[in-house]
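Batch 3, record 17
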Amino acid sequence: MANQDKQISIGDVVNRSVEFEEDLKGEIMNINVGPSHPSTHGVLRLKVQLDGEVVTEVEPVVGYLHRGDEKIAENMTYNQFIPYTDRLDYIAPLSNNVAYVLAVEKLAGLEVPPRCQAIRVICCELARISSHLLGVGVYGMDTGALTVFMYTFTERERLYTLFEQLTGARFTTSYTRIGGLTRDLPPGWLGNVINFLNQFEPVIEEIDKLMTRNRIFYDRTVGVGVITPEDAISYGVTGPNLRASGVACDLRKTNPYSGYEKYEFDVPVGSAGDCYDRWLIRMEEIRQSVKIVRQVIDSIPDGPWYAEEARKIYAPPKAKILTSMEELIQNFMLVTEGPQIRPGEVYFEAENPKGALGFYIVSKGGGIPYRLKIRAPSFCNLSILPKLLKGCMVADIPVILGSIDFVLGECDR
Amino acid sequence: MNYLPILIALLKAVIMISVVMGIAAYAVLAERKIAGWIQGRYGPNRTVLPFIGVIPILGNMLTRLGIFQPVADGLKFIFKEDPVPGHVNKFYYFLAPCVAFIPAMTTMVVLPFGEMDGVPLVLANIDIGMLFILAVSSLGVYGIILAGWSANSKYPFLGGIRASAQMISYELAMGLSILPAFLWANAPGSETGLSLFNVVQSQDQLWMVFWQPLSALIFLVALFAETNRLPFDMPEAETELVSGYHTEYGSMKFGLFFVGEYTHIVIGSGVLVVLYFGGWNFLPGIPFPWPAGWAGGLLSTLWFLLKVFSVVFFFMWIRWTLPRFRYDQVMRLGWAILLPLALANLVLNAILIALFENWLV
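Prediction for the assembled complex:
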């Protein structure tokens, strides 16, 4: 810009135009979105620089919900940490429980019976439905359609009732144990699940009708927040967000665990990687989860629901503890010293609703992990935000945040 | 000097204001009830006045319907603590709610709502009623801009800027969409002018919406934008700007914005009904079946209100169904679609009317 002729008198037109042009550029506005803001779904804070309505710079600030879960894990037995996994992705606690115990069981080299595996698959898929329902609901709310949120939340309440029947708690389930579960399925519960699924499938189609072909929603989301497959992989994006970018990576298919290889389901894959694709993927995954749950219920095996041979890991039934000397000692050792896990290291990832939830556990033997590292999918998914939000409009921020569907309990742990 | 006419006019004005305020208050209740109905929940159903809840069946029914909720809302607005943030420009901060509220209430002065023995039921039947409404209602944007600006805070600032841009853009389309209706109503020999009463009378056989469907549609869309209702609620987009221009307002000052918005909706629906849906004319082809005298006046008013409430319901139905536009999409819709459309509509209608009058008849 021609700044050298600044000394020309005030009356000079050229000088005025130069000043005017500089005025026109305006100033950059720094604005905090969050930690307490209607669209940050928790306590995410974004330091946003705005040029008018256009975002020029974004810096996500995480950690407002940090509790030190990984350090806490080093001070308690393996089973005692299960309630803490509820609080990771608190939208889908059941699948966190399952992922954690699967990691510990892999470390211990423990195989659980087929019935236990099947129940865990039901848990995971119901948790996925619950999480995706919240995901699409708040996504709708972020674009301004509040009714979708109410519809999905009604269904989530029904799911919570099922969780309550299964685990005794609606929200913090803590259902699994190393080597098994807290209890077997309650009688008649599978029938309740079937009833739920029967009335749930029309609701999904209703939400689909309300939003998916909605012109305003389409315009708001298509081409917004595009994640290319290369970016998705290099930023470590996992879960539905990765698949929306066109990478067909679903750990349930590629590294099946807990008997997922027995069930037939499709892995939906997007093509554009934009916000609209992420919406479609979540809607389709809900349908696939319903399909999986139906298959599991049709083929649920009988038999033991915990690893009976793992005497140093899983506590025997209460009736036996109270009547038999052997089991009493076994229970006493488990309560005082925790489940005995052999020394070694393990890294296990499970396909959680938000992405790949990984546990890296180092054991030096005994009942307490030496080190436990959690790979939280929300944290990795959020890392792409600065790249994604740059250059978009203010109104795109909630849409992109909603489409990424993160949970701060897991991100900050 | 005779003070009687002034007193009568004052009395009429007070009655009108209380009725419109009442309608606005119950529009809030209707909004919440309709939202509940659409979303599969109940809406407000607990509020009750002392001693009324114990009346056997009636009390329970009124409570369930939420009849007393507006009373509770109003009392809450009045008695809540009224914090004024330290960083605001006090003068404009206090001025803004008044500026938002007063034009909304003023527009109803010229809005006719019924007819008794050929005499319009309206506070002031002026010849330029439509111009008056356009002029006064566009003042309302000052309230929002001032609120956003004086709060001296970032989210309200963004909301205020959005509001000013949006309302100015859509006012053009709105004004242009009204003109064809008046061109049509001002047939040779008629003395419609810009009077709203005469516009209604000119629709005694077929409503304007059948002659001017495109104008009606453009007017409706512009009305949504002017009243800042979803899908055009940019200025207060909750998930983006927290509460937009009224983020820093509390208690009754927020209440004034709130009531002002609903008054705007009610009056805007009234204008829509008057211009395009035949006002208090009963049905297309059946203009005025009401009896003469005050009963006819009352019935025509009730019929008019019924139409207005249907439009208000439509407003709420849309709000709880559709997502929100993005700011640039709103601007594009306003400038690149609605404005050319309204302009083309105006020109086309003008040509058609000219042809019709000069050559075909």
